[in-house]
Design a protein that fits this description.
Blueprint (H helix, E strand, L loop, with lengths): L1 E8 L2 E9 L5 E8 L6 E3 L6 E6 L5 E5 L2 E7 L1 E10 L6 E12 L3 E12 L7 H11 L4 E2 L5 E8 L8 E7 L8 E5 L10 E3 L7 E6 L13 E7 L4 E7 L3
Parallel strand pairs: 11-18
Antiparallel strand pairs: 1-2, 2-8, 3-7, 3-9, 4-9, 5-8, 6-7, 9-10, 12-13, 13-16, 14-17, 15-16, 17-18
């Protein structure tokens, strides 16, 4: 695990946390799935930094025993865009990393990493290509051909939780079409389940509104939806109406 930097983007330095995993090991996305430890990246100790934006490439579903996690195998770079306070001064990127690693067992780990970026940014074309590779899987804003088109809210019966049926339009890509949903921090939502779709152009997913805190209400709550085809990803924030 290391910090890397290479190139600039609209005045910001392109950097990243690179994690290389041994065969059989996985690490988690910001929403870990059925279980797991989401990564925490704290850059408070950095110097000459006006702003820091940590980006999250879209994950894959990974079977671990009877559960599914959202995460990464082999290697991943979490891109970091850094805006320096003074462009004519070097920048020190210092990140405290806390994350979970999973093989047969899942274990937490922590590390303090640092990297000095020269004034004007690091000129390392090979490193920049690595960062750009995983930055291409960071979700962008939804578009007409790649978005949620409808959400139906089904009332739960006999004490069961409510369910959302989410209709999406996802173009074909190199991987599986999928949908991940983030709720408020105190919500522990399950993963979505693919549903049969009436139209070839649509893909439907069901989400059980389980894992809400006691007394939690879905109406008026913002959910963040990440759609992917394994090649590209988009995201939408939608406020539930019921």
């Amino acid at each position: 695990m290391r910090l890397i930097a290479g190139g600039t983007s609209y005045g910001r330095y392109k950097a990243g946390l690179e994690i290389v995993l041994d065969e059989g090991w996985k690490t988690y996305w910001k929403i870990p799935g059925d279980s797991g430890i989401p990564p925490v990246l704290d850059g408070a100790a950095s110097g000459n930094v006006a702003d820091m934006d940590i980006l999250w490439p879209v994950p894959s579903r990974i079977k671990v025993g009877q559960s599914e996690i959202l995460g990464f195998k082999h290697a991943i770079i979490f891109p970091i865009l850094v805006t320096p306070k003074a462009k004519d001064q070097p920048t020190r990127l210092a990140i405290n990393v806390q994350l979970g690693l999973c093989s047969d067992l899942c274990v937490p780990m922590a590390a303090d990493l640092s990297l000095d970026i020269p004034a004007g940014g690091s000129r390392a074309p090979g490193v920049e290509l690595l960062i750009d590779r995983d930055m291409a899987l960071v979700p962008v804003a939804a578009s007409d051909g790649f978005k949620i088109t409808k959400i139906s809210h089904d009332k739960g019966q006999d004490g069961k939780p409510d369910r959302l049926v989410i209709t999406t339009r996802i173009p074909d890509g190199y991987g599986e079409k999928d949908l991940f949903v983030e709720g408020p921090k105190d919500w522990l939502l399950p993963l979505t389940v693919k549903q049969p779709s009436a139209k070839v152009s649509d893909q439907q997913f069901a989400l059980t509104l389980d894992g809400l805190p006691e007394g939690g209400q879905s109406k008026g709550t913002d959910l963040r939806f990440t759609l992917t085809n394994g090649e590209e990803a988009v995201e939408q924030v939608i406020t539930l109406q019921k």
